[in-house]
Design brief:
Number of strands: 2
Strand order of the largest sheet: 1-2
Order of helices and strands: HHHEE
Strand content: under 5%
Length: 149
C-alpha cells in the first residue's frame, strides 16, 4: 500500500494538464480534499485574527457564499474558463504594496448529475459517500446517502 500526503503551498497549487491527465481518480480525490482543507485553513486563519471583519472585507457575504449550477456544453465550459481568466488577468500580476491585501479566490468546476425529477432550484440533490479518512481514522466529513439543500 502506498500512502500519499498532499499539501498545497502558495504558488504551487497549479496542476498542469499533463500531470492531471496522469493522476488516478483517487489522486484527484486527495488533491481536491487538500485544496478544500487549505481553503478551510485560510478561512479559519482569517476569522481567528482579532481585527477580522468579514462584512467590511467582503468575505463571501456580498457573494453570499454562492454556489450554483450552470448547464454548459464542454465548449461553453471552456469559454467560461477563458472569460474568467480574462477578467482576472489584469489583476494577476499585482503584488504587495499600494494598500493591497492578498485575497484567496477559489473557483471549482466539475460536472454533476442531473437533479431528480421534482427537485427545483434551491433543492439540488447531491450524493455524498461515506469514506474512511486517508489516515484510517473514522469517516471523513462526507456523510452517506443523499443530502437535499
Amino acid at each position: 500500500m502506498v500512502e500519499r500526503h498532499y499539501r498545497l503551498r502558495q504558488g504551487a497549487a497549479n496542476v498542469d494538464p499533463e500531470t492531471a491527465g496522469a493522476m488516478s481518480l483517487e489522486e484527484h480525490r486527495h488533491g481536491f480534499a487538500a485544496a478544500m482543507a487549505a481553503l478551510l485553513a485560510e478561512s479559519n486563519a482569517y476569522l481567528d485574527r482579532p481585527a477580522a471583519d468579514p462584512v467590511a472585507d467582503r468575505v463571501g457575504y456580498r457573494q453570499r457564499y454562492r454556489q450554483g449550477t450552470l448547464w454548459l456544453r464542454p465548449e461553453e465550459m471552456e469559454e467560461v474558463a477563458g472569460e474568467l481568466r480574462q477578467v482576472l488577468a489584469p489583476r494577476a500580476g499585482n503584488g504587495p504594496g499600494d494598500g493591497r491585501r492578498p485575497y484567496v479566490l477559489s473557483a471549482i468546476f466539475f460536472p454533476t448529475e442531473e437533479p431528480e425529477p421534482g427537485t427545483g432550484p434551491g433543492q439540488a440533490v447531491s450524493r455524498a459517500v461515506t469514506r474512511m479518512a486517508p489516515s484510517g481514522g473514522g469517516p471523513s466529513l462526507l456523510a452517506g446517502d443523499r443530502v437535499r439543500r
